């Protein structure tokens, strides 16, 4: 099944997807130094590919990617290609993007992040934005005291925006996270091998590419394919739940 992309839809197609209850998937990543052998946008490429893989498996729509995430210059400065968006500015941007998607009428908006984990600045920005929008939306619809004055059965699901990691617990037996090491290198070898230069995997004496048991030079496309399939399967199962 070809994945449906929001920016390629006509209004009638979008309305039909919303009325059918399809989830809207929002890929989120960053542009950041991933060693000398991987593309700068690896995190974003993983999130995009995962969302498209999910939407090829179940009825879902892929929203435009949110790419300019906060990195804190944790891996490098801009001289090696890292971009860093100030957290406050990014949170405002994320909130506005989600607000617009919510006002389109999507009943489930699922942000999927591949960057710094669920306690990292990017995920926290999305989570705070989602919580604020949930309360703002419900207050606007039902007034002050919206939760106390409206029986739960009469309320729509006020938590319509969800934020989750690319690797769910159900996928962790075969999929793991690192930074430009064995796992991410394998994943990009599977998804976009033309963006990987394995000859540069040991360049620069970087601890995160040469850690024992997690060496980038041990990566294989087969491992990446197994990992990606598990990630898609776990998310498809999660989104099928009521």
Question: In words, what does this structure look like?
Answer:
- The protein has 242 residues and is of the alpha/beta class.
- The chain has one domain: Rossmann fold (3-Layer(aba) Sandwich).
- 40% of the residues lie in helices and 8% in strands.
- Helix 2 (42-55) crosses helix 6 (182-191) and helix 6 packs across helix 7.
- The chain is globular and about 60 Å long.
- The mean pLDDT is 93.
Please give the structural blueprint.
Blueprint: E1 4-5, H1 11-19, E2 24-28, H2 42-55, E3 61-62, H3 87-104, E4 109-113, H4 121-142, H5 146-149, E5 161-165, H6 182-191, H7 221-240
Helix pairs in contact: 2-6, 2-7, 3-4, 6-7
Q: Any descriptors?
A:
7 helices, 5 strands, 242 residues, Rossmann fold, alpha/beta, single chain
Quick recap:
With 242 residues, the protein is an alpha/beta fold. The chain has 7 helices and 5 strands; from the N terminus they run βαβαβαβααβαα.
């Amino acid at each position: 099944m070809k994945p449906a992309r929001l920016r390629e839809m006509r209004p009638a197609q979008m309305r039909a997807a919303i009325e059918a209850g399809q989830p809207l998937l929002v890929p989120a990543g960053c542009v950041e130094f991933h060693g000398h052998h991987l593309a700068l946008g690896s995190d974003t490429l993983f999130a995009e590919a995962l969302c498209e893989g999910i939407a090829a498996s179940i009825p879902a729509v892929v929203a435009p990617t949110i790419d300019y995430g906060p990195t804190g210059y944790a891996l490098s400065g801009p001289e090696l290609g890292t971009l860093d968006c100030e957290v406050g500015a990014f949170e405002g941007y994320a909130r506005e993007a989600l607000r617009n998607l919510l006002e389109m009428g999507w009943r489930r908006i699922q942000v999927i992040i591949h960057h710094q984990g669920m306690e990292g600045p990017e995920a926290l920005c999305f989570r705070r934005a989602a919580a604020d929008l949930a309360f703002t939306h419900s207050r606007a619809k039902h007034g002050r005291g919206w939760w106390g004055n409206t029986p739960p059965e009469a309320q729509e699901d006020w938590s319509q925006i969800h934020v989750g990691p690319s690797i769910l617990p159900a996928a962790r037996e075969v999929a793991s996270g690192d930074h430009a090491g064995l796992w991410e290198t394998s994943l990009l070898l599977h998804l976009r091998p033309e963006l990987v230069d394995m000859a540069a995997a040991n360049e620069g004496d970087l601890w995160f590419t040469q850690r024992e048991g997690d060496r980038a030079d041990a990566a294989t496309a087969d491992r990446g394919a197994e990992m990606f399939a598990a990630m898609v399967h776990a998310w498809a199962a999660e989104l099928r739940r009521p």
